[in-house]
Amino acid sequence: MDLVPDDAACAPDRRHARATGCIAAILVACLAVLAHAGEPTVGDSGSREPSALPVLVSETPTTVRLHVLLPDNVPPGSVEVRLNGRKVIVLASTAGGRRLRSRSLRLSEEATEEGAEADYEADGSLTITLQKGPHDGS
Prior knowledge:
Immunoglobulin-like
């Protein structure tokens, strides 16, 4: 004797599973788009797709702090900050030559390289402090 489920009894579960699957697929697609939104087209002489480099940004009225979470195999001296208006990209190289880079970061105001400071933290991260550019008309 074969047990065949009644279609009417299974329909709500199938619709729920189908809707859940669709919602999950949409969320994954949105996250993928957001992860790559605003990616810079900066040419990189390293690998074609550098790995992500996590950077936390905090701003004060006069400064921008970039807290770069460096992997163990990245020497602090390999870190490079590229400024283009209000956009910032952080690049680094591992000891083995693999290129890493942050996502494109948008600041509230332009920052300048003048007076920049870098501090290597005990947790292995690097904190880079940039001065905000002069305001027009102030």
